[in-house]
Every structure is written in C-alpha cells, then in structure tokens.
Design brief:
Blueprint: H1 3-31, H2 33-43, H3 49-52
C-alpha cells in the first residue's frame, strides 16, 4: 500500500472513532431530551429550590414569559 492510502485510512479511522465517541455525549441527548428530563425530575424531586437559593435571591424564572 502506498503512503497516501495508509494516511487516508488513518484519517478515516480517527474521524470515525471521534464521531463514535461524541455520539453518546452530543447527539443522543439532542435527539432524546425526554430521557434526561425524567432523570432530572427524579433526582431533584426532594429539593426545594427556595431553601437552597443563596442570598435570599428570587428563584429563576423565564424572563420572556407573560406576567
């Protein structure tokens, strides 16, 4: 095999490995946000945000929602 073919195979392999490593971190959460919303609901069910809010600050609310 020539040097160019070996380099091409290496670059293709490296790219495939990088994309395979990034899929569960980047792509899957974007395609399936409901999985993470359920996990977040379950882990935060016993936390009262008003009790842990520092400095008596108001709990965050959506600034674009109607009042």
């Amino acid at each position: 095999m020539s040097n160019k073919v070996k380099t091409g195979i290496f670059i293709a392999g490296f790219t495939a490995f990088t994309l395979a490593a990034l899929y569960p971190v980047v792509v899957f959460p974007k395609l399936h946000p409901e999985v993470y919303k359920e996990i977040q609901k379950e882990t935060r069910k016993d936390i009262k945000q008003e009790d842990i809010q520092p400095g008596n600050m108001k709990v965050w609310s959506d600034p674009f929602s109607r009042k």
